[in-house]
Design a protein that fits this description.
Length: 259
């Protein structure tokens, strides 16, 4: 079994569980803004996706495999019911967990992703990452200069550099670049299931993002018939980082409406 790294944030074992799952190239720290806001009402489990952060590398990507590994981790922690919150790739994995293991998921919150196939949109990111010569760079500054040849947005470069680390004078990425690039087409595929997840689901869209569109509604309702969507204005794909308080309030309103 591949090890899934996680952190538990709790001061009361009687509180309900909320599980936070980050997106592509990220780590559990990406949702720390939300995590801090949830610790008052929940036991919070922050997860590093397989092939990311401090989780083990795998042999092959699939939504079902990632979902299975995370479900195994929750079972090992004796978590029998939880609210799942997933962003981007983490949202797709959260959807797969709910479809494959509905008894585990009390409700589902998906941040800025739909259960649909996407056209490739990370070609420049992969080009930038491959431009970084890990065997010869001597500093993060050099790594950023290499990334900048292909990635214009400073925020994207800084996000990626969070996963760069040095060990015994050798540089590494914490994410499994080789696998993620090789299996990228699989990451972009639609979520598939022979049945639907009928419990409450909230999809949150960043107004300026093109990940969650009106044209995705039919496919979404087919798998998640008891779902609704909300929009946070003035933000893009990273809405949970740009407006964590608004995102938290929206999620809490959704959770309280189900009680």
């Amino acid at each position: 079994m591949s090890a899934v790294n996680y952190q538990i944030h709790s001061d009361d074992s009687q509180k309900p569980w909320i599980i936070l799952i980050h997106g592509l190239f990220g780590s559990l720290d990406n949702l720390s803004g939300l995590r801090r806001l949830f610790t008052e009402q929940f036991q919070v489990l922050s997860i590093d996706l397989p092939d990311h952060g401090h989780s083990s590398f795998t042999e092959e990507f699939s939504f079902k495999h990632y979902a299975h590994l995370i479900s195994q981790t929750l079972a090992a922690l004796n978590i029998q019911s939880a609210t799942l919150v997933g962003h981007s790739l983490g949202g797709k994995v959260a959807m797969q967990i709910a479809l494959d293991n509905a008894s585990l998921v009390k409700r589902l919150v998906i941040i800025d992703i739909a259960p649909v196939k996407y056209l490739p949109r990370h070609n420049q990111v992969f080009a930038g990452l491959n431009a970084v010569d890990l065997g010869h760079i001597e500093s993060r500054k050099q790594a950023e200069e290499s990334l900048a040849q292909h990635i214009q947005e400073s925020g994207v470069r800084q996000f990626l550099l969070k996963s760069l680390y040095n060990q015994e004078n050798q540089w590494f990425w914490r994410f499994n670049l080789k696998l993620l690039q090789r299996d990228y087409i699989k990451l972009s595929e639609a979520i598939e299931s022979e049945h639907s997840f009928n419990k409450p689901v909230l999809f949150i869209k960043g107004q300026l993002s093109d990940y969650l569109l009106a044209e995705h509604k039919e496919a979404t309702l087919t798998l998640f018939p008891n779902s609704k969507s909300r929009v946070i204005n003035g933000v893009g794909h990273w809405l949970h980082a740009e407006k964590p308080k608004v995102c938290h309030e929206m999620i809490m309103s959704f959770i309280l409406a189900q009680k």
